[in-house]
Amino acid sequence: MIFEGLSDKLQNTFSKLRSKGKLTEKDVKDAMREVKLALLEADVNFKVVKDFIKKVQERCVGQEVMKSLTPGQHVIKIVNEELTALMGDVQSKIMISSKPPTVIMMVGLQGAGKTTTAGKLGGYFKKQGKKPLLVACDVYRPAAIKQLQVVGEKLDIPVFAMGDKENPVNIAKAGLSHAQKNGNDMVIIDTAGRLHVDEVLMEELKNIKSEVRPHEILLTVDAMTGQDAVNVAESFNDALGIDGVVLTKLDGDTRGGAALSIRAVTKKPIKFIGMGEKLEDLEPFHPDRMASRILG
Ligand code: GDP
């Protein structure tokens, strides 16, 4: 389970705090040292941890907490609030364009779960009464187009494809006109991924972006890759500019550091989380719920 190790450690620290009547500054400092270690062990970015602990500590040695009758409880409340803030406070939704179709461009490295997530998002919006169109622009990975078509069939969502000989920019543009003609109010473009961030890929994505002008560029990253996921998010954001992140494979045995670091490092919100391989395993990301899950 995600955050299991982190949750256990934090609960242990907090139960010690709760058992005390009044708290001294040393009690708070000791507790913060344990929280810091727990976050680092959960693979949270070092600088993010440092800033987080500083903020929490400042608030915890304040008058309000020290004088409180239940200081331990107060500290937990502050940690909960700061964890929530770290992940962006409130849920970040997809901007729906007032002039349909809303165009979402999916980007990410190979294997992160981009094609699966494109399908999942289509299914998510279809359930909300939208008429999505999936557009197959990954002309490099063998079978990527077929994979999207299979996903589309399962969800009963149309897929626009032009094979793997056409330029992805042309496919994206043609897909958009197809949507306009056919009354699709949501266009989800599946772009190519690579094994690593490279310039050729970024150039292609920039071309699609400037020609198609998507309302949202959503980056899919794999939570299992920990801080690599955070570095990938930073690279894509610097090179292309992203609007949000879909963090996949949170159902796996991940320590969860990416979930807690991405927003603070990139300033871009996590919008959805992938919780499994099935096409319905996609959830909107709620920072407050995730913080409560961590604190148990
Ligand atoms: P792409 O190369 O980025 O398009 O990646 P794919 O969509 O082909 O996904 C790569 C693998 O990750 C596939 O086996 C997916 O089933 C799997 N996958 C995608 N999202 C999730 C998720 O949220 N949880 C789990 N457990 N597996 C996922």
TrEMBL record:
Locate the coiled-coil region(s) and give their ranges. Answer: none
- Cell compartments where the protein resides: Cytoplasm
Name a GO molecular-function annotation.
7S RNA binding
Enzyme class at the top of the EC tree:
hydrolase
**What reaction does this catalyse?**
GTP + H2O = GDP + phosphate + H(+)
Record keywords: Cytoplasm, GTP-binding, Hydrolase, Nucleotide-binding, Ribonucleoprotein, RNA-binding, Signal recognition particle
Task: Please give the family membership noted in the entry.
Answer: Belongs to the GTP-binding SRP family. SRP54 subfamily.
| Free-text function comment from the UniProt entry | Involved in targeting and insertion of nascent membrane proteins into the cytoplasmic membrane. Binds to the hydrophobic signal sequence of the ribosome-nascent chain (RNC) as it emerges from the ribosomes. The SRP-RNC complex is then targeted to the cytoplasmic membrane where it interacts with the SRP receptor FtsY.
User: What subunit structure does UniProt give?
Assistant: Part of the signal recognition particle protein translocation system, which is composed of SRP and FtsY.
Entry note about domains: Composed of three domains: the N-terminal N domain, which is responsible for interactions with the ribosome, the central G domain, which binds GTP, and the C-terminal M domain, which binds the RNA and the signal sequence of the RNC.
Name recorded for this polypeptide: Signal recognition particle protein
Taxonomic source organism: Peptacetobacter hiranonis (strain DSM 13275 / JCM 10541 / KCTC 15199 / TO-931)
Q: Which gene encodes it?
A: ffh
Which start and end residues of the full protein are shown?
A: 1 to 296 of 453
